Amino acid sequence: MSAPAAPAAEAPKGGGNKKLIIIIAAVLVLVLVGGGAAFLLLKKKAPADGEEGAEEVHEPAPVHAKPKPGTPPTFVPLDPFTVNLSDKDVDRFAQIGVTLEVVDAKTADQIKAYLPAIRSNVLMLLSHKSSVELLTIEGKEKLAREIKRESVRPMGIELDDEDEEDPPPDTVKKKKKKKRQQVESPVTNVLFSTFIVQ
């Protein structure tokens, strides 16, 4: 009689499962590390692009310093404006060319980014003027101040209206006025290249 055959040596039961668990854990760690790295790279890249999908935040522009003495001025010419004036008696129009003098080339680039809004503000300003206001030297100087104020408004800069005079103190109730921080305009001058009123 022959001896019963010895049962085949069985593989250790826990060894295969342990290897499978280790492989799955290693794959999960790699996926998490790779996903985290991809997230950080995309997060850094998105604000740099600043194009599609990024929200545009309008923060007030910083206070601008005056240009250094001896540096040449930087100019930003605007396309000429042709506008109907607000004269009641007759139809009159004006064709006005405006060039903005700014503190530096960086500011000029910033101004160019806001050009559609700046042009709209200046156009609205011009359409409320009459020929009588625009034909005097004082009217032109006032218009230059108003264009300077309106050209920086889209950038979040509010300049005081130099033309407003304070009413006499005895006619107004006493109110404490908050002193506004003096903000220097990045537009240092408004120049007219053409000025035709017909």
Quaternary structure classification: single chain
The total count of helices amounts to 5
- Ranges where pLDDT stays below 50 over 5 or more residues in a row are 53-64, 165-177
What fraction of the residues are assigned to beta strands by DSSP? 5-15%
Largest sheet: 4 strands, antiparallel
DSSP summary, beta strand count: 4
Report the span from N to C terminus. 131 Å
Which sequence of SSEs, written as H and E, runs from N to C? Answer: HEEEHHHHE
Please tell me what the overall shape is: elongated
Q: Please state the average pLDDT score.
A: 77
| Rg over C-alpha atoms, rounded to the nearest angstrom | 35 Å
Helix content: 25-40%
Structural class: alpha+beta
Keywords:
single chain, 198 residues, alpha+beta, 4-stranded antiparallel beta sheet, 5 helices, elongated
